[in-house]
Design a protein that fits this description.
Layout: H1 8-19, H2 24-31, H3 40-61, E1 70-76, H4 90-109, E2 116-122, H5 128-133, H6 143-156, E3 165-168
Parallel strand pairs: 1-2, 2-3
Length: 173
Amino acid sequence: MYRIELSVAAIMSLHANSTSGFKEEELVNVVDKDAEEMSDEDFDQIFNINVRSPFRLVRDLLPNYSNNAHIVNISSMGGVQGSVKFPGLSLYSASKAALAVFTECLAEEFKSRNIRANALAIGAVQTEMLSNAFPGYKAPLKASEMAGFIFDFALNGQQYFNGKIIPVSLTTP
């Protein structure tokens, strides 16, 4: 795996650029709304976090990518066509679908440089957002367990996949 070495200041700058103006608790509150309750600002916030931020990170880090790099975007089962959909998650699911298509396009754009791009469509993982959207539901996986899978996939997944949206789900709520 190609490692991009950046100073802490550079990482903080990239993070600030890609997430400026967003607070996690605000996103959690926005996600659990039906489409008719959403404002234009809610729409912008969800798409900025789930689509614009990954776009900015790819664009801003691109000069540091080498051949054989692997871009891994985190999508959601809600963004996979034909998967179960839930009330209150329409814009979240739509933004994750947009991220999935963006990932497929990246794979084509960078194919000649041997840079691979894949997205993991994550299912139910025990997080604050899941708890707010599905009170009382207990997911079979903790975030730390999923993080291990994501890390392993980032290291090795490009050997087997490019331009794929890979469902990673034991259950749905």
